[in-house]
Amino acid sequence: MAALATQVFLDTYATEGVRPDLAREALQQYSEAAFADRLADPGRRFILAEASGGLVGFAEVATAVTQSPAAGVQGCELIRLYVQPRSQRTGVGSALLSEAEKLATGAGAPCLWLTVWEGNLRALAFYARLGYADVGSSTHALEGRAYGNRVVARRLAHPARTP
């Protein structure tokens, strides 16, 4: 997962070359040790997608209901949905997202929310196509440089409860 995450992160964010802040973020957040810590966290779940015996994507979901950066939007957070570039637009991302929604529904969350870098137009279009609404904005700072994000969310359908 560390190698795939680094690949997707740099492919997505380093559109104008690998700047030092992005390099340090990738090396810290996507190291094997960082993933070992996240995998050990009982409040996080990972969903993996494989093809021909290799990892092509994963989703990371926080299973507790939390407040998003957008006012009034609470639910489970989709922390990451990363798909290897050559596997994008093949249904892998949609399948991972569907499984993430099932996890959030099982946790009783009213919605699944996430932040998307405002420069990632393909991801914003992907989420909009799958029913996610733009509900606000947030920023992510790396070493003093602010990156604007959009907060997107989708209400989840819960099975009818019987008395």
From TrEMBL:
Domain of life (superkingdom): Bacteria
Domain N-acetyltransferase as annotated: residue spans: 1-161
Keywords for the protein's UniProt record, in alphabetical order: Acyltransferase, Transferase
InterPro entries in UniProt: Acyl_CoA_acyltransferase, Bact_Acetyltransf, GNAT_dom
Pfam family, one: Acetyltransf_1
Signal peptide: none
Protein name: GNAT family N-acetyltransferase
Organism: Ramlibacter pallidus
Source lineage: Bacteria, Pseudomonadati, Pseudomonadota, Betaproteobacteria, Burkholderiales
